[in-house]
Amino acid sequence: MQGFEKGLSCLSRLDVSCTVRQKEAIEHVDGPAAVLAGPGSGKTFVTTHRIHRLITSQGAEPAQILVITFTKAAALEMQERFFRLMENERPPVHFGTFHAVFYYILRQSAQYRGYTIITETERRKLVRDIIHTHKRFLGLQEEDIEELLAEIGRRKTGGNQEALSIQKLSEEDFLYLAEEYQSWLREFSKFDFDDLVEVCLNLLLEDGKVRKEWQTQFRYILVDEFQDISPKQYQIVKLLAAPEDNLFIVGDDDQAIYGFRGATPDSMQQFFRDYGDAKRILLDVNFRCHEKVVAAAGKVVSENENRLPKEIRASHEEGVGIRIFHEETEADVGKAVIAALAEEQKIGRLSDCALICRTNFDCGMWARTLYEAKLPYTLREKPRDRFAHFVIQDIRAYLALAAGDQKRRYFLRIMNRPLRYMKRDSLPGEQVEREALIAYYTNVPKIQDSVKRLYRDLDHLAGKRLHLQIHYIRNVMGYDAWLREKYGSEKAEAFQKVGEEFAQFSRQFATLQDMNNYISQYREVIRKETPEKEGAQILTMHAAKGLEFPYVYIPDCNEGKIPLDKSKTKEAVEEERRMFYVAMTRAKQKLCLFYYNGKTGKDAPSRFLKLIIQTSSSNSAASRNSSKASATASYSSSSSI
Hints:
This protein is of the alpha/beta class. Helix content is 50%, strand content 13%. The chain contains 27 helices and 17 strands. The protein has a seven-stranded mixed β-sheet with strand order 13-14-12-15-16-11-17. A six-stranded parallel β-sheet has the order 3-2-6-7-1-8, with helices on both faces. The protein has a two-stranded parallel ribbon with strand order 4-5. Helix 11 (231-241) links the parallel strand 6 and strand 7 (247-251). It is globular, with a radius of gyration of 28 Å.
């Protein structure tokens, strides 16, 4: 009786606090159902209240309810909110991430009972040991380990394949390394996280008795953030839900941004194909964002073709809405962002601001910009050192030699890039002497000619602007041709792009020393520990998922960065558009978008801004220098929607 009374109480509260669509989702009991839950639509509220109602009104056994989320933090938050609903009772509902649930299932199997999960530290040490043990990996360096582990994970999950930014590693060598890695895991009864999916799926497919036991154990399955599910994870969920198919999914195909992990927006559509009788419920109210943010974000994502159509409306108009900052140059964007954040600091709300970037590298660059402006910030993720890429290290070695720094380590990096047939033995000291090096190859005229040509080229570089030196290194001295010969045209294209980006980056510096000082300071900044929640939050679009901030700043709204220029296919561009949509809908009261006049089509204003700018132009005339912040930054144009 007590449970029944609680159910009535819950329903009476729902009549007051729920939308009609939320109530419909909460009251769903048996059979498959899909809740299309846009940003800020109260999906956690719906999920926790549905679990509460299953137990208190429908008599479901708590231990037979399985709730799957994508992150440990989300699982803990949902569990705590559910416990509060249960008035601090703690019924044994299963909350966990996909990996935690799959590991739990495997540990109950006699076959895998003794297996443990390898730690990230152990994974790095394992790959380090492999590359130090085999001569075929002599060219690999410490900074390559993260990329190797990421590629192993991509291959296991079936995610997007990207060119390895690792020197001296063929496909054959990579496969050999991956097999050595996997053999060690098997020998020592270890899983990595990506193994859990494959091994759990095989167990359920091959052992009917085990499969039936788990189907009986979990009568009701709820999956959060379903759009992020991979095909293999979905296959496991379907197996567990059968034969009753009490599968309740919550997701938004417009927020599917993990293609590199094998997730696609098709997962939601596939669910409706697999469960033709599934109930479909759209949570169509965004309680988070200003109505102008909701409208603009909706226009952006509506240009994607591969999506389920939906109309989302806002519940409030509190705040500014959207401001668009149109600047003359990329440098002006930096000044505009700093000026705007300085204004936020003056009125005491800088810690309510988020600077959302497309890439991890951009986060590091913006952290350095804020550091230089003496604005406090917090990096939500540790940025990778883009300058550690081997292409950039090679080019910097050439630049150092051209500037007169004759260290042996610089010669060792570039002496055979392109191939000149030079030997390490020809460089006996820490400093390389030109005449001695030329004399070393007296008896090998062809190599001696190559050495002389190298020095002539280095002499030619001296004194020229940095971007012109880099162009000469790549196109005249043969570095790009060496990349194509070494890695093949497809992989070399990605590496050549790194060289292009570095050349563009170098344009802002008058001297090599200026650029080296900048890079040193950048590295100091990204190593610096920043206090949590102090100052502006700097994070990537991926890391922003699931979060919200009163004020959101998105810089770099230009082609090449948003979307990334490597997004060549229609599918890749649509994922980039979804990422922009996710970033926009983190803003509760104000969203600021920054772009500049591109010099070429490659850095033109982002195509994603087209409909927003059109709306801005039709709704209001652009206001120049209308705010104190814009006056201090000399904004070329800013407008509000």
